[in-house]
Amino acid sequence: MKIYESVEESLEQVKDSDTIMVGGFGLVGAPLTLVEGLTKKDVKGLTIISNNLGEKNRGLGILLNQGKIDKGIGSYFTSNRDVGDAYQKGEIDLQLLPQGTLSESIRAGGAGLGGYYTKTGVGTELVEGKEEREIKGERYIFEPALTADVAIVRAWKADELGNLVYYKTARNFNPIMATAANIVIAEVDEIVEAGELSSEEIVTPHLFVDSVVKAQKILTKEGVIDHE
Amino acid sequence: MSENTKEMIAKRTAQELANKSIVNLGIGIPTLVPKFLQESDVILHTENGMLGISDVSEEKVDPNLVNAGKLPVGEEIGSSFFNSADSFGMIRGGHVDVAILGGLQVDQKGLIANWAIPGKNIIGVGGAMDLLVGAKKIIVTIMHTSKDGSSKIVPECTYPITSIRSVNVIITDLAVFEVRDEKLVCIEVMPGSSEEKVKEKTDAEFIFDLKK
């Protein structure tokens, strides 16, 4: 586990064609500092696993407009109209999953499973072609697990070991994504000494976390601002 | 659709909720339902990872405390936060009593279409499919007709369905329907509506069994 002063350096291991999980529900709980770091980095052909691809010209929306994203895997791209336009023009590929399937696939990936069976989506257009089987008289479909090269997540506090705690509904996808990637980079509001976080409150134990960097962008009522 | 009409639907929907039930609200009309609940009548769950939502005053708005519609919310006594996988585990696992959803169409078997419009880019599904397989009771709040006057209560959905599971109750600006054995039963006519109007504006087959 390494604490980085520089966002640029924390993202050094990200390379072309990587699959990157990005935490957040819209901009809430999104690692906005690290996403901005990606917009400044010379990298292309990314597959992004995230509930949304940001909002128009915000968060991952900027990375999309830069043409750095080849594929998006998520549940609700509707929140950014540019995604539909890019898809229409054939600039990006999209894989749409129900939100519960997206999150469970990430959880399964982090837990070392190959996939699982779910009832969600059975009999709908969205799951056409997926393997189906009957379990206890009900129809289920197979969903493969999701993993990534890199996960960038947003937490509230980290200690010097990399243990993470989260803030209110900014938690969302972050803890599960922190389990499912080879390299996990967390941006946090505060870095505290080891021992300051109580063992009961730690949500993400440090073994999942490779790098921590201080957040420079924060979400306020007025929008995204720079940390002073 | 006017604000009053939406509120009328939301008010009627609130009456469907049993005390202390765990309720998940979709985007749109469902978000108006809490206005018509007594404080802590029901416990609200939101799929972005929270149980026990309350109202929030303007000065206490926290940008990192939102519901699935990304609207600011507050914390009820005993509320909790959890990750997205746990949240959908609660939904799929049958731990949520009621989901209140918006819809594009509902058909006479009670099947709902609410995630995709043919011919348009299908780029969002969210949590609707999970709620339909997992919530014990599904209430749909929907305007009876579209802007062009065509019925949204149809013989068979022409839009892609969200689930093969039928919904339980449909509440529109004109009527309340129950789905019994995959058949629509109109149990109530809304204020300002009439049996004739419900018949005229409903393309689906249904019967009346009005509660007196």
Can you put this structure into words, describing what you see?
The complex is a heterodimer of chains A (228) and B (212). By secondary structure, chain A is α/β, with parallel strands linked by helices. Chain A has a single domain (2-113, 147-226), classed as 3-Layer(aba) Sandwich (Glutaconate Coenzyme A-transferase). In chain A, 19% of the residues lie in helices and 32% in strands. Chain A is built from six helices and 14 strands. Chain A has helices at residues 7-10, 32-40, 60-65, 81-88, 99-110, 174-177; strands at residues 2-4, 19-22, 46-49, 69-74, 93-96, 115-118, 132-135, 138-144, 148-159, 164-165, 181-192, 211-214, 217-220, 223-226. In chain A, the strands form three sheets. In chain A, strands 1, 2, 3, 4, 5, 9, 10, 11 and 12 form a nine-stranded mixed beta sheet that branches. In chain A, strands 6-8-7 form a three-stranded antiparallel beta sheet. A two-stranded antiparallel sheet of chain A has the order 13-14. In chain A, strand 3, helix 3 (60-65) and strand 4 form a beta-alpha-beta unit. The two termini of chain A are 26 Å apart. The model of chain A has no long low-confidence stretch (mean pLDDT 97). By secondary structure, chain B is an alpha/beta fold. Chain B has a single domain, classed as Glutaconate Coenzyme A-transferase (3-Layer(aba) Sandwich), CATH 3.40.1080.10. Chain B contains four helices and 13 strands. Chain B has helices spanning 3-14, 84-92, 128-134, 195-201, and strands at 22-25, 43-46, 50-54, 74-81, 98-101, 105-107, 112-113, 137-141, 153-154, 169-171, 175-180, 183-189, 206-208. In chain B, the strands form two sheets. In chain B, strands 4-3-2-1-5-8-10-11-12-13 form a ten-stranded mixed beta sheet, with helices on both faces. The longest helix of chain B has 12 residues, at 3-14. Chain B is globular, with a radius of gyration of 17 Å. At the A-B interface, helix 4, helix 5 and helix 6 of A face helix 2 and helix 3 of B.
